[in-house]
Write a structure and sequence with these properties.
The structure holds three protein chains of three kinds. Chain A is mostly helical. Chain A is about 75% helix and about 0% strand. Chain A contains twelve helices and no strands. In chain A, helix 4 packs parallel to helix 12 and helix 10 (about 255-270) packs across helix 11. In chain B, a hairpin with a 5-residue loop joins strand 4 (about 80) and strand 5. Chains in contact: A-B, A-C, B-C.
């Protein structure tokens, strides 16, 4: 097993290099290169700022040297100083935001899993039924609904008209003065809409996928065998069919990391949640290039991680996967 | 901060709370409730909402309004502006300007102490001056101090600055926050010193805490030389979204914020709001304009510019963009301030006069779609403005409509700020732009209007050149006599109004709202913060009575 | 079975699928809207009327007015043009790139395949939306830039699909026959392999346009897509968010349009998939 993980990680290294190449290319897309964009309101600050940036990026050096420096910096997570007025280190700013985004994403993946999987299974088992048909329609709707629109609609309904749920932030103002139970409840209330929205897109896809997997698995011979043996339907479904249908779904979950991260830009901005997505959005709007590049790189890295975890999870769950041998 | 081009990503809000000047302010309170005891009392805390976080507390090395505002609680300059935007003493009790205008002698207050107990002396002023002109200090405000020929400290309470030539804005430049020599002299670059994160000054409040992206906390300084401030604690909370900030206001999380015009007109008229909050309104210190590239073949002609000024319906812009909360601009000085000249040529909205002027300029023929033509060329141009600024985008849209009514086709192009400044403004690659200027209390606007300031990194973007204005700008800065300065600036406004190198559009209103329990808030030309240390909450109404440390 | 009759069969199956037909009809409706705006709205989408700022739906303004008093229906009708064309062009770019890479990887196999697929893997490491935002931040939001960048970040799925098809096709008899006749690689790829990949590509393209429209409206909503005063469904929604407490119509209608269009394309795409390969039905 360990060897498998190691091998998997090694295979990812060229991917990391590729990521660095692409991000480097993106930086240089800016008209005037990385410094062409450093502007402040005062001309005097600009000239001096330009000089500092030139030195930092080594822009008087040939491109491959610049790339080398970028690669070296990326490896130690040194993304430079943010262009925003506070001038803090980019990595510090990202670091304090990761937990929020990550926890929301993990919670929504859990939600997807808990809802989509049973939904998919039930739809497959009761194929063609009313339940199945309704779910299919709902699923298609889910694919087509723009998340930000849904967010607005839900905000209008639950936040403005009914007043049941808060429409922004992670905690309310009085948070610190609440009891422990109160605080947990407060956080939960603030997270309901964001997590639901984050999960929404994934729900549709995963439940559909689960359904089609189940359908295929059910057709298989070994299921017929199990039934012929006289095993109760429940056992057939849960013990045999589900486990086999589940495997690809685990992979898909791991692969949905990039989409979740991408979606976080929208709903974190809408709900004023201080996560990585909102930081990224602010960075884009203020053209804070070091910050943008830092987050882009981290996001790619997290995606890679998600893929590796998905593969490892798959390998763990499926005894047929060779973990010790090459191939 | 003279002549700083203004880019507002959001409605001009926290930017303006600082040195906002002018206008008769009208407090709109929701009726006087029965006040039991209105006696000034010490105590309570005020929680302000701010969109931006502080980036540092040393004003010399920061450029954003949030930082300057925070620093203002902790530091003092030699001089400051009073409620009518006239200079008064801060750390300097008084000063004299020599008859030839080349020497200013400041008499410093005695007995002032830094927050750590050390005495404030003229050595601190000298230290500040030296650092302002030091190349190692990354400051944007060094220019004014470089004009000093010689500075001297005859005794611990006197500071003398000598200039090669009389320089009126110099006096105002000494409003720069004075730095403590004993705490900073070992740091060659003050921006890297711990004081930038944990300031120690002479001001009415002492620094307590700064949680980045979250809040800053200050406590009243009992030994402040003007007397201990009434409000015991100031907390500024960072809330990057105005809608959220407004929700916090309503739920009691913050006591003070600047409203958007929409919030002011449509969301604060309910009885509950009026019961707990007072709204205020005063003209802000910045105007928005439509600037022409004066070398452009269309805009070379003064009649064309004047025609466009008549074609634009400034009232409609203010109504549509700011719900009426603003004033038309006629020049680069704010109504209500002493340099403002009310008697300049005005351009009331009149499409027929506009068409007449255009015809006089040779634009008589019309193309098939109604656009004016001259020598085969259609009157089409592109106006640029920075992306992400909703007010400017809306202003542009309204102007576009106004102009098409007189046969002029204006395309709107929004460009994101960095490219806007670097690719278009600096390289003068534009037909026209919509931008804004912040107005500094000192009327010297040399950098904007002088014909020598047209280099790529300089501020005279439109390329304005008028010999008389050049001369008047020079006159205005070389004398300390208010009467003489006023004459010069009045004449400048007359010429600018006549020549319209830009169409001055509007001054928006600043719209602060504060919880009713705070007394003493009185809008004046300088805004509402000028007397902050005198605001108080009567004993019976105080909300925050114990503070976490 | 000849290609022609397969084609006819597919069309017949498609037309029997009520959902797909519905989807196609919705799309057609929006196209008509985009091509003949004056039929649906007599208002000028850019006509500002400050006296009518944020008025709710009424007889003269069936979908209400926005924050500058402009008619929402008119703006949406013109916004249809932007959204539909961005979707179409962006997806065309994506298909173009994906086709090329997929064909080359599948046909040549070996090193070429490895290298190209490695490239695909790298691209897939980036959350697409992040990448798009980052590039737009650097090169600026203009309609062409948006089309370009959506296309350039959305080709990976198509590439994999085409590669898979090519891999299986290249072993088939007609390819061997063509080669025996002395046809060059290019000819084989473009004349023989490519046409057989069209069916799955069509499905991917249809679904892809839907995705592109979602991305464009997302970008416009965030303020980095189509810039006002040019109307786009996404940027009308921005005003919806800013005025959420008083102007529900600004939030509801543009979103509805996006939703219906995307749904239409999805249904059509799924319908095409079922029509072309009925073995897949029921999955």
């Amino acid at each position: 097993m360990l060897r498998y993980v190691l091998r998997r990680v090694l295979v990812s290294i060229p991917l990391l290099v590729g990521i660095s190449l692409i991000t480097f290319g993106v930086i240089n897309m800016a008209p005037g290169g990385p410094i062409g964009i450093s502007s402040d309101l005062n001309p005097k600050a600009t000239a001096e700022y330009r000089e500092r940036l030139k030195a930092y990026y080594g822009l008087d050096q040939p491109l491959y040297v610049q790339y080398g420096r970028w690669l070296g910096r990326m490896a130690v997570l040194d993304f430079g100083d943010s262009f925003s007025p506070d001038g803090r280190k980019v990595w510090d700013k990202i670091r304090e935001r990761i937990p929020v985004t990550l926890s929301i994403n993990v919670l929504s993946m859990a939600m997807i899993f808990l809802i989509a999987v049973p939904l998919g299974i039930y739809s497959a088992v009761r194929k063609g039924s009313l339940f199945d048909r309704i779910t299919t329609v709902t699923v298609f709707t889910g694919f087509a609904v723009p998340t930000f629109w849904l967010a607005l609609l839900l905000m209008i309904l639950f936040g403005v008209h009914l007043g049941w749920l808060p429409i922004s932030g992670l905690v309310s103002l009085e948070h610190d003065s609440l009891s422990l139970a109160g605080r947990i409840g407060d956080r939960a209330r603030h997270l309901v809409l964001p997590i639901f929205l984050a999960a929404f897109g994934g729900l549709a896809g995963i439940s559909r996928y689960m359904r089609s997997n189940m359908l295929e698995v059910i057709r298989q011979d070994y299921i017929a065998t199990a039934r012929a043996k006289g095993l109760p339907e429940g056992t057939v479904v849960f013990r045999h069919a589900m486990r086999n249908a589940l495997l690809p779904v685990i992979t898909i979950l791991g692969l949905s990391v990039p989409d979740l991260l991408g979606g976080s830009v929208i709903f974190e901005t809408i709900f004023s949640i201080p996560g990585m997505g909102q930081l990224f959005y602010q960075g884009v709007m203020s053209r804070d290039y070091p910050l943008i590049m830092g987050i882009l790189t981290i996001a790619a890295f997290l995606t890679l991680l998600g893929n590796i975890l998905a593969d490892v999870g798959y390998a763990l769950a499926d005894p047929r996967i060779s973990t010790g041998r090459t191939g | 901060m003279r002549g700083v081009p203004r880019r507002t990503a959001l409605p001009p809000i926290v930017l303006l709370l600082l040195l906002a000047a002018c206008g008769g302010g009208k407090p709109e309170s929701g009726g006087k409730g029965a006040v039991v005891s209105d006696v000034p009392a010490y105590g309570d805390a005020i929680v302000e909402g701010s969109i931006g976080d502080v980036s540092g507390f040393l004003t010399a090395v920061t450029t954003d309004a949030s930082s300057h505002e925070a620093a203002g609680y902790v530091f003092n300059g030699l001089v400051r502006y009073d409620k009518d935007l006239k200079l008064e003493g801060d750390l300097a009790e008084s000063w004299e300007v020599s008859p030839d205008g080349k020497r200013i002698t400041f008499h410093l207050r005695k007995g002032v102490k830094w927050h750590d107990g050390a005495p404030f002396t003229s050595d601190d002023v000298m230290f500040t001056y030296r650092r302002m002109i030091d190349p190692k200090t990354p400051t944007a405000y060094g220019e004014d101090f470089k004009q000093v020929k010689r500075a001297s400290v005859p005794d611990p309470h006197t500071f003398v600055a000598e200039y090669a030539r009389p320089f009126a804005p110099a006096l105002a430049s000494w409003g720069m926050h004075i730095l403590p020599k004993h705490l900073l002299e070992q740091y060659p670059d003050i921006s890297k010193s711990p004081l930038n994160k944990k300031p120690i000054g002479t001001g009415p409040y002492r620094f307590v805490e700064w949680k980045t992206s979250e809040k800053t906390v200050f406590d009243a300084n009992p030994g402040y030389f003007e007397g201990k401030p009434f409000i015991a604690r100031v907390v500024t909370r960072v809330i990057p979204d105005l809608a959220t900030m407004f929700l916090e206001l309503k739920s009691g999380g913050i006591d003070l914020m600047n409203l958007t015009p929409l919030q002011y007109t449509r969301q604060t008229e309910t009885p509950e709001i009026k019961k707990s909050f007072n709204k205020f309104r005063y003209l802000s210190s910045g105007y928005t304009y439509l600037g022409f590239r004066l070398s452009h073949p269309f805009f070379k002609d003064q009649k064309v510019r004047q025609a466009i000024a008549h074609a634009i319906n400034k009232k409609e812009v203010i109504e549509g963009v700011f719900f009426g909360l603003g004033q038309e601009a006629t020049g680069p000085y704010k109504p209500g301030t002493w340099p403002y000249n009310p008697n300049v040529r005005k351009y009331p909205h009149d499409p027929s006069i506009a068409k007449g002027l255009l015809a006089e300029a040779g634009w008589k023929e019309k193309d098939t779609d109604g656009i004016l033509k001259k020598d085969g060329r259609r009157f089409e141009f592109t106006v640029l403005t920075n992306a992400g600024n909703e007010s400017r985008a809306k202003t542009a849209a309204i102007i576009q409509q106004n102009l098409s009514a007189v046969g002029v086709r204006m395309e709107i192009r929004t460009v994101e700020w960095a490219a806007f400044i670097n690719e278009f403004v600096k390289k003068r690659k534009f037909d026209a732009l919509i931008l804004g200027w912040n107005i500094t209390p000192d009327p010297d606007q040399f950098d904007i209007w002088n014909s020598s300031k047209t280099g790529p990194d300089e501020l005279n973007h439109v390329g304005y050149a008028n010999a008389e204005v050049d001369r008047l700008l020079e006159e205005g800065r070389r004398t300390f006599d208010i009467g003489k300065r006023k004459k010069a600036y009045f004449r400048i406004q007359e010429i600018l109004a006549e020549e319209q190198p830009l169409v001055f559009l509007y001054y928006p209103d600043s719209l602060p709202v504060a919880h009713k329990r705070f007394r003493g808030i009185t809008p004046a030309p300088a805004g509402i913060s000028y007397n902050f240390i005198k605001w108080y909450v009567p004993k019976g109404e105080q909300k925050y009575t114990t503070f976490q440390q | 079975m000849s290609a022609n009759s397969i084609f006819k069969d597919s069309i017949r199956r498609l037309s029997r699928n009520p959902l797909a037909v519905a989807g196609g009809a919705v799309i057609l409706l929006f196209f008509v809207l985009a091509l003949f705006p004056s039929v649906f709205s007599s208002h000028d989408p850019n006509r500002i009327d400050i006296l009518k700022i944020l008025t709710p739906p009424s007889e003269s303004h069936p979908l209400g007015t926005d924050d500058l008093g402009r008619d929402v229906l008119a703006r949406m009708v013109f916004g249809a043009r932007i959204s539909l064309s961005v979707g179409f062009v962006a997806e065309s770019i994506a298909i173009g790139i994906g086709l090329l890479i997929g064909l080359l990887a599948g046909y040549y196999g070996g090193r070429v395949d490895s290298a190209l697929m490695r490239f695909v893997d790298i691209m897939l490491c980036f959350p697409t939306f992040f990448l798009i935002l980052a590039v737009i931040a650097f090169i600026g939001p203009s309609i062409w830039n948006i089309m370009f960048i959506i296309g350039v970040t959305g080709w990976m799925g198509v590439a994999r699909l085409v590669r898979a098809e090519t891999l299986s096709l290249k072993e088939r008899d007609f390819v061997a026959a063509a080669r025996a006749q002395g046809a060059g690689d290019a000819r084989i790829i473009f004349r023989h392999v490519l046409p057989n990949t069209l069916a799955p590509i069509l499905v991917a393209a249809t679904l892809g346009v839907a995705g592109a429209i979602l991305v464009e409206s997302g970008l416009s909503f965030l303020g980095i897509g189509v810039q006002p005063p040019t109307p786009s469904w996404g940027n009308i929604l921005t005003a919806g968010k800013d005025n959420i407490e008083f102007a529900w119509w600004l939030s509801v209608y543009p979103g509805l349009a996006i939703f219906l269009t995307v749904l239409g394309y999805n249904l059509l795409g799924e319908g095409i998939r079922d029509a072309v390969d009925p073995r897949l039905k029921g999955r």
